[in-house]
Structure formats: structure tokens, C-alpha cells
């Protein structure tokens, strides 16, 4: 099992990859060169999609990806949500996979208590954290990288991998027992000494 990498600042290659998502990559790079502490809004759908989860649940998904799975691509936190960068097309496919898994569905569904996952794809945009960071959140609930981009061609999980991580995180959060709760006032008799 591997642990989540401690990469909280984007490398030059990671910065170039992020900038390639924008309409004007050179302008984005110039802005970041002048102000590396500036967050930037980038479009989704061509270079990456983003799956957004409440922060605690997103961290559980990330722990599953790195502890039991293939790892992840870049991951950020923004205003109390975890942003998992995923392969283009994930935002379109993941909702139907979640429906198939009865994600947050009808009463009695095994994943009823799971928080909603928001999928950002073609036509959407996300705010990415500043390039340089110390791993601490910005004041006022700002943004930061949990796993910063560090290569021009990062591996990005697809919808099936994100679904796997979400289901594993949900199952870990909801413990199900086949035994009814013990009656604390019940009398217990030792029958092992029967003659």
C-alpha cells in the first residue's frame, strides 16, 4: 500500500499541463509567473474533468485511491470540498454509474447517507489553487493542493476508478452488521457447563 504523496506545489511541467486547459495557455502561464499565489479559473472537459466531494468524504476517497487502488492525479481542496481531477469524460459517465450503484437513492439504499458528488465537465469551470503552496489552507477557506500536478501527462482516474473509490469510502463510513444490537439488560446464562 502506498500513501498519498506530499506534493503541495505544482512543478513547471504540472503548471504547463494546467495552463493547457485554458483558452490562452501562454497568458495563464504569464499570470502565474507574475503571481504564483493567484488562484485561476480553468475550463473542464478537454484536459481534465473534476469530481467534487465534501472535504471529509473526498479525503476518504483519496485514502482509498492511494491505500488500496492505483493512486490519483492532482487533487485540491476549495471551500470545504475536495476536487479530484479526473480523465475527460468522467463528468458525463460518472452520474449514470452512481445511479446504477443506487447512490443516495431510495429509502433503504445501502449508500443513502453518502454526500452528493458534483461532476464538472465540458461547459464547466473550476478554480484551481495557487501554484506555490505550503499545504496549509488559505485564510477564509481558500484553496490548496493536496496532490499538486507534477507532470505534463498526469495519470487521471476515469469514471470506473472514481466510482470504485467512492463506493469503498462509503462502505467504510457506513458499518453494517447482520447482528441486532445487544440488549444491555438481558440476562446471560453460561450453557457451556451443562451436564
Q: Tally the beta strands.
A: 7
Please, how many domains? 1
User: Low-confidence spans: pLDDT under 50, at least 5 residues?
Assistant: 105-112
What is the first-to-last residue Cα distance?
51 Å
User: Major sheet, described briefly?
Assistant: 5 strands, antiparallel
- Order of helical and strand elements: HHEEHEEHEEEH
Indicate the mean pLDDT: 83
The fraction of residues assigned to DSSP E strands is 15-25%
Structural class: alpha+beta
User: Counting H and I runs of at least 4 residues, what is the number of helices?
Assistant: 5
Strand order of the largest sheet: 5-2-4-3-7
The outline comes out as globular
Q: Describe it for me?
A:
The protein is α+β, with helices and mostly antiparallel strands and 195 residues long. The protein has one domain. It has five helices and seven strands, in the order ααββαββαβββα. It has helices at 12-19, 25-34, 55-67, 90-100, 159-173; strands spanning 40-43, 49-54, 75-78, 81-86, 118-120, 125-128, 143-147. The strands form two sheets. Strands 5-2-4-3-7 form a five-stranded antiparallel beta sheet, covered by helices on one side. A hairpin with a 2-residue loop joins β3 (75-78) and β4. The longest helix is centred in the last third of the chain and has 15 residues, at 159-173. The chain is globular, with a radius of gyration of 21 Å. The chain starts with 11 loop residues before the first helix and ends in a 22-residue tail after the last helix. Mean pLDDT is 83; it is low at 105-112.
Amino acid at each position: 500500500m502506498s500513501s498519498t504523496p506530499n506534493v503541495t506545489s505544482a512543478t513547471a511541467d504540472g503548471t504547463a499541463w494546467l495552463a493547457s486547459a485554458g483558452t490562452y495557455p501562454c497568458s495563464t502561464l504569464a499570470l502565474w509567473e507574475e503571481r504564483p499565489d493567484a488562484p485561476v479559473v480553468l475550463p473542464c472537459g478537454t484536459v481534465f474533468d473534476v469530481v467534487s466531494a465534501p472535504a471529509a468524504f473526498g479525503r476518504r476517497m483519496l485514502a482509498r485511491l492511494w491505500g488500496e487502488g492505483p493512486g490519483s492525479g492532482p487533487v485540491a481542496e476549495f471551500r470545504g470540498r475536495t476536487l479530484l481531477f479526473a480523465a475527460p469524460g468522467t463528468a458525463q459517465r460518472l452520474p449514470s454509474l452512481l445511479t446504477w450503484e443506487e447512490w443516495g437513492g431510495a429509502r433503504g439504499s445501502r449508500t443513502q447517507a453518502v454526500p452528493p458528488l458534483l461532476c464538472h465537465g465540458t461547459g464547466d469551470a473550476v478554480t484551481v489553487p495557487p501554484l506555490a503552496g505550503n499545504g496549509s489552507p488559505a485564510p477564509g477557506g481558500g484553496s490548496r493542493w493536496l496532490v499538486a500536478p507534477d507532470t505534463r501527462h498526469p495519470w487521471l482516474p476515469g469514471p470506473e476508478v472514481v466510482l470504485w473509490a467512492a463506493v469503498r469510502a462509503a462502505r467504510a463510513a457506513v458499518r453494517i452488521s447482520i447482528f441486532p444490537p445487544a440488549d444491555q439488560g438481558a440476562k446471560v446464562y453460561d450453557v457451556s457447563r451443562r451436564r
